[in-house]
Structures are given as structure tokens and as C-alpha cells.
Amino acid sequence: MPRHIPDRGADADADQTGTTSPVTAGTVVASTFEEQAPALPNEMADLRRKLTRWLGEFPLGPDSKHDITLATYEALSNVAAHAYPDGHGWARLQATRSGDALTVTVTDTGCGIPATRRPQPGLRTSGGRGLLLIEKVADRSDINTGDHGTEIRMTWHPAALRTECRT
User: Residue 76's Cα: distance from chain center in Å?
Assistant: First the structure.
């Protein structure tokens, strides 16, 4: 059930549900992106490409765009590889730009991350490298996990957005 939610106020009736490319009205870019897909490797790669297109609408430098895309793909890859041992489930990708912050959230309703696999500060063998990479490249990352699934929220404050907000 792909969904792209433009932030257009009174123009909300003009929304094209199911649109995956950024929606612009003049110079206003949709501030919210949301898609859901089956938790399969090729679907996660497709979500990454869609997010990259949406990010392209913002004045981000290549390093910021790379960090956001890399961390997001790590989170999506974890959903495909670990969240659903039976192989059936969904991943939700949400991204929001608010002022000088970009927040990306990856959510699943899978089995959660076992305590033995969660990253622990200073301990490089506490599980996979994906969660450690996310922690390293995001300005802030939060993980909420349990039997209900996992939500990874990553936030960046790219210099280009801070500069844009001041003008």
C-alpha cells in the first residue's frame, strides 16, 4: 500500500494516493514521505530508490544524502533479513522534513531484535554492524523493539537545511 503524503494544506484534495515521486507545488516540496512494501530484499532496494528521489528535492550535499540513504537501507535490510523468520511481513518507511531536521523511520511488526543482538556502546561484537553504522552516521537514532516489532527512528540536521531555514 504505497502512499506519498504531500504537505499542501488546503490542496489536500489534489493528492494522488499511491504516488511515489515527490509532489511539488511551485517551490514547495512535500515534507512527508511514506511507503509500505513486503519485507523482501528487492522491495527494500526499491524503497531506498524512492527515498533517494524524495531526498533529491531538498538542498542536501552528497555526504548528507549518502548518510541518510545508507542508514535507511541498513534498517530496511535488517527488516528483510531478520524481522520475519517465516518470510512474510511488511516494512514501512516514513520520512519527514521539519525545519532543519530530516527524520526517517523504518517500522516492522516482526519478531523484534533479541537483547543479545542489540548494539552496546563500546562493544563491537554485540550483533550485526548495521545498527552500529546507523548509530554512527545519524545525528540521533532511537530503537524501540520487542515482540510487537521494531521501529528505528533516525534524525539528521544537515548543514544545508540549517542554512536554508535562516534565509
Answer: 8
Determine the straight-line distance between the first and last CA of the chain, rounded to whole angstroms: 37
pTM (two decimals) = 0.77
Largest CA distance in the chain: 51
* Number of neighbouring beta carbons within 10 Å of residue 76: 27
Q: What is the pLDDT of residues 17-59, one digit of tens each?
A: 333 444 444 445 579 999 999 999 999 999 999 999 999 999 9
Asked whether the beta carbons of 131 and 115 are under 8 A apart, the reply is no
The number of C-alpha atoms within 13 Å of 35 and in the hemisphere containing its C-beta is 23
Grid cell 530508490 is found at: 49
Helix (H, G, I), strand (E, B) or coil at 43: helix
